[in-house]
Design a protein that fits this description.
Elements: H1 10-36, H2 42-68, H3 88-122, E1 129-134, E2 144-148, H4 157-160, E3 192-197, H5 210-220, E4 223-227, H6 237-254, E5 260-270, H7 272-295, H8 306-310, E6 325-329, H9 335-345, H10 353-357, H11 361-366, H12 369-375, E7 388-394, H13 402-414, E8 419-424, H14 431-434, H15 445-456, H16 470-482
Helix pairs in contact: 1-2, 2-3, 6-7, 12-13
Length: about 475
């Protein structure tokens, strides 16, 4: 069920406008008043300096709360008054987080925005793609996807004339299975790999990923699928998993018409979307492994634990194929630890993490891929998991530390799965995805693009020293642990 955000009231909108106006006046006035405090007029300017200080301390945090914390607030909060922080310490923590995010995102959005506008104007109406194709989904609102053709693919008359109202074929009686959902589609000509690109903050809409999808389709010679994906506050993790399962089912049935190979699906995801991608494939693999374990006479007493009794496969009536590989950037794989980190940073009320994957501790644990995989080690069967998994993380990521990716890769390898972690010492949280948008978008654009190309083309990922600058990233892990 969706968690639809309530429409902002007029009073809240007016209050936000007042806060913005006050900040617009306080920011330029702050350095002037600071200088006047060292003159004989300090006794006149001191009260105004104190007022400006309070505005700069409280109002940015209040703006963040008005924008992101009014949906599903903590219990006990009055429904008649806006949910705002009054503690100076919490406001300071929120201000610091806002500044860190702004300092990272502002230059990126400027560069990516210019490239996005240029490509939209140049390729207007002529981009090799098909837009707004409906796919099977449990979401009450229509969910659609865009497909970008690989450059080597020449659309046939049938595939180029697919109407906008095209609806994919849905199996009449879908069931949970260990084999592909349908008979393999015919492949009369060689097909290219398929890259499913999932939206994530701050690029939460298909249109935001237009530049990235065009570049990846051209660079990788792959069919790139960009779907609508339910994110908070439009819904919780159950809806997002249902969306992704619908996308994968559509890809298996229909992607041949767009030049893609349905047996070579790679999912590229960032942040919370990386969690959704990993969690969706793990749920399917573990339930298939459990069925195989019972069918081959395994000891069912090993399955009598809380993880199996409480675990539910979301949208299990939507069959999906086995995913070939995962390329996950700055993902969250232990939700409880992530929620604790957000509480220490003072941003748990404005972050979607708790409300998207929780809110209870039990729900957070059941939605944690690393603990879930370890607790299910008795039924981990590699033939049901993605063939390869790559976890990319950055040493400058203040949102998700690199320990998340290292932990997930270590647990996966320990249970016999093919997983590698690649750590970049100077990479931030948003940088991990934005550096792929254009050729000069970041320091590691070439390295991460090459890593993705090797994964999509099924080349060897091991033994390339210096690609991820692991040593520098590991030093940052030690520094954080020591602090």
């Amino acid at each position: 069920m969706g968690v639809l955000a309530p429409a902002p009231s007029r009073r809240r909108t007016a209050f936000k406008a007042f806060l913005v106006l006050a900040l617009a006046c306080a920011v330029p006035a702050a350095p002037v008043l600071l200088c006047l405090n060292f003159t004989p007029l300090f006794f006149l300017t001191l009260p105004f300096s104190a007022l400006v200080f309070l505005i700069l301390l409280y109002f940015p945090a209040w703006l963040a709360y008005l924008s992101h914390a009014q949906h599903d607030p903590p219990s006990g909060v009055s429904s008649y008054l806006p949910f705002l922080p009054l503690s100076p310490r919490r406001c300071l923590l929120v201000d610091v987080s806002l500044w860190q995010t702004f300092a990272e995102v502002a230059p990126i959005l400027g560069q990516v925005g210019r490239d996005w506008v240029y490509r939209r104007l140049v390729t207007l109406g002529r981009a090799p793609m098909r837009q707004n194709i409906p796919y099977s989904s449990l979401s009450p609102s229509p969910r659609r996807l865009d497909v970008y053709y690989p450059p080597s693919f020449v659309p046939s008359s049938s595939s180029s004339l697919i109407p906008s109202s095209f609806t994919p074929t849905i199996p009449s009686s879908p069931t949970h299975h260990t084999d592909p959902p349908d008979t393999p589609p015919p492949t009369p000509t060689p097909k290219r790999p398929v890259l499913v690109l999932l939206p994530s903050a701050p690029f939460t809409r298909k249109l935001h990923l237009y530049t990235l999808a065009l570049r990846l389709a051209r660079t990788l010679d792959a069919a790139v699928v960009v779907p609508d994906l339910t994110l908070y506050p439009d819904g919780r993790v159950r809806a997002a998993v249902g969306d992704l399962r619908g996308v994968l089912g559509w890809v298996w049935r229909e992607i041949v018409a767009y030049g893609g190979d349905p047996t070579r699906i790679t999912i590229l995801a960032h942040g919370l979307s990386a969690h959704v991608a990993l969690y969706t494939t793990f749920q399917e693999a573990l339930m298939n492994g459990r069925s195989e374990f019972v069918r081959t006479g395994g000891d069912e007493r090993l399955l009598r634990s809380g993880v199996f009794e409480n675990q539910e496969v979301y949208a299990q009536d939507v069959p999906i194929p086995r995913v070939h590989s995962l390329f996950l950037l700055a993902g969250i794989y232990d939700v409880q630890l992530a929620m604790k980190r957000e509480s220490q940073r003072g941003v748990e009320h404005i972050s979607p993490l708790r409300r998207f994957l929780g809110p209870s501790a039990t729900a957070a644990w059941l939605h944690s891929s690393a603990p879930l995989l370890f607790a299910s080690k008795a039924i981990v069967m590699p033939q049901y998991f993605p063939e390869k998994m790559v976890f990319v993380a950055g040493g400058k990521d203040v949102v998700v530390p690199i320990s998340e990716s290292r932990l997930m890769a270590a647990v996966s390898v320990g249970l016999g799965l093919d997983a590698t972690d690649h750590l970049f010492s100077e990479l931030g949280h948003v940088d991990a995805l934005s550096c792929l948008f254009c050729d000069d978008a970041g320091k590691y654009t070439g390295d991460i693009t090459e890593l993705l190309r090797k994964l999509v083309e099924d080349e060897d990922l091991v033994g390339k020293e210096g690609l991820g600058e692991k040593e520098g990233a590991m030093e940052k892990v030690g520094e954080r642990k020591g602090s």
